[in-house]
Write a structure and sequence with these properties.
By secondary structure, this protein is an alpha/beta fold. The chain is built from nine helices and five strands. The chain has two domains: 127 residues, 3-Layer(aba) Sandwich (Rossmann fold); 59 residues, Arc Repressor Mutant, subunit A (Orthogonal Bundle), CATH 1.10.10.10. A five-stranded parallel β-sheet has the order 2-1-3-4-5, sandwiched between helices. Helix 7 crosses helix 8. The two termini are 22 Å apart. 24% of the residues are buried.
């Protein structure tokens, strides 16, 4: 799978697309340009990495509407908004919705490249976190149904004797399952495991799907 990050450019003005593409390519980044949000959505492959330079005032689906589509379709490309007549409320709206930056045209080349670099670094962090989350869920999938019953109780700090009573099994069986849970999740203690569950938003007490 090609993991090379791209700078995607969406602007209805050909001259702007061409100029942005030249700046981006000169800085050493691969890019793809589109004249509309609709064309971008049709061409974009889910999971393709990079960031997006997005004009606010597009015909058809505008920049803010495309940003909403990203949220709806769980697309995590950082967005750098570009506009010729931005104002403070517009900037606040974009940033609150998760935009990486909001720049006013014409954008100085140095400022644009710095913004792209920051957006790509942020995207790389998101990608790394996503891979770590997938690996953690894969380890959780190794737990048996009984171990999944014990996991939330152990994370809640319930003592082994109380767990044995609640689940109507022996104290020794609880001990064995606790050891196996740590082994399968590759953690050293339940505090570490609890932090991982919180970090990756694992629905405690439910078996993940294979």
């Amino acid at each position: 799978m090609n993991t090379q990050p791209y700078v995607f450019i969406v602007d209805d003005d050909y001259a702007v697309r061409d100029g942005l593409g030249f700046i981006v390519e000169t800085a050493g980044f691969a890019y793809q340009a589109f004249e509309s949000a609709e064309h971008f959505l049709q061409a974009y492959c889910p999971g393709k990495r990079g960031c997006l330079l997005l004009d606010v005032n597009l015909p058809g689906l505008n920049g803010f509407e495309l940003q909403s589509e990203f949220i709806h379709h769980n697309i995590h490309l950082p967005i750098i908004f570009l506009t010729g007549n931005g104002d403070i409320p517009m900037t606040v709206r974009a940033i609150k919705a998760g935009a990486a930056d909001f720049l006013t045209k014409p954008v100085p080349s140095k400022l644009l490249i710095e913004s792209i670099q920051a957006a790509l670094q942020y995207e790389a962090q998101l990608h790394k976190q996503g891979e770590a989350g997938q690996a953690f869920h894969s380890r959780l999938n190794k737990l048996t149904a009984r171990e999944m019953e014990i996991l939330p109780l152990a994370l809640a700090g319930i003592h082994n004797k109380e767990m044995a009573r609640l689940l109507n099994i022996s104290y020794r069986t609880i001990e064995i399952h606790r050891i196996r849970i740590l082994q399968k999740t590759e953690t050293t203690n339940f505090l570490e495991l609890s932090r991982l569950c919180d970090a990756f938003q694992f629905p405690q007490g439910q078996k993940t799907e294979h």
